[in-house]
Amino acid sequence: MRQGKNIICNRCGKRFAADGSKSGQEAIHVEKEWGYFSSRDGIRQMFDLCENCYDEWISSFRFLPENQEETEFL
Ligand SMILES: [Zn+2]
After folding, report:
1. E strands within 1-74?
2. Is residue 68's pLDDT more than 70?
3. How many angstroms is it from 24 CA to the middle of ligand 1?
4. How far is the CA of 65 from the centre of ligand 1 (A)?
5. Residue ranges making up the domain that contains 54
6. How far is the CA of 57 from the centre of ligand 1 (A)?
7. Based on the structure, what is the number of domains in the chain?
8. Is this model's pTM higher than 0.90 or not?
9. Would you say the C-alpha torsion 36, 3, 25, 54 has a positive or negative sign?
10. Ligand 1 center from residue 14 Cα (angstroms)
11. How far, in Å, from the CA of 36 to the mean position of ligand 1?
C-alpha cells in the first residue's frame, strides 16, 4: 500500500521508497475492480508486494508467470 512517498508491502510490512531507483527495491502493484457478477461486486481492491513476498506468492502458482526480456532500457 502507498503511504506518502513510500510503498509498504501488504504482506510483510516492509517499507521502501516508491522511487525504486533510489532504494533498489521494487514492488508489484495489483489493482482490481471486481465486476458485477463476482462476489466482490463493484469493489476496487489494491495491494503492493515486495519482491520477496512476490517470489513466495508465485511459488504457489501451478504455472509460473511468463517471462519476457525487455530489449530496450529507458
Ligand atoms: Zn513483503
Report:
1. 2-3, 6-8, 15-17, 27-33, 44-50
2. yes
3. 14
4. 18
5. 2-58
6. 10
7. 1
8. no
9. negative
10. 6
11. 31
Decide if 67 is inside a domain.
no
Residue 28 lies in a domain: yes
Rg of the chain in Å (alpha carbons):
15
Residue 9 belongs to a domain: yes
pLDDT classification of 73: cutoffs 50, 70, 90: low
Q: With respect to residue 15, please indicate whether it lies within any of the assigned structural domains.
A: yes
7-57 residue pLDDT tens: 999 999 999 888 766 667 888 999 999 988 888 888 999 999 999 999 999
Compute, in angstroms, the gap from residue 19 CA to the centroid of ligand 1.
16
Where does the pLDDT of residue 63 fall: very low under 50, low under 70, confident under 90, or very high at 90 and above? very high
Cell 526480456 maps to which residue?
69
Cα 52 to averaged position of ligand 1 atoms, centre (Å):
6
Phi and psi at residue 17, in whole multiples of 5°?
-65, 140
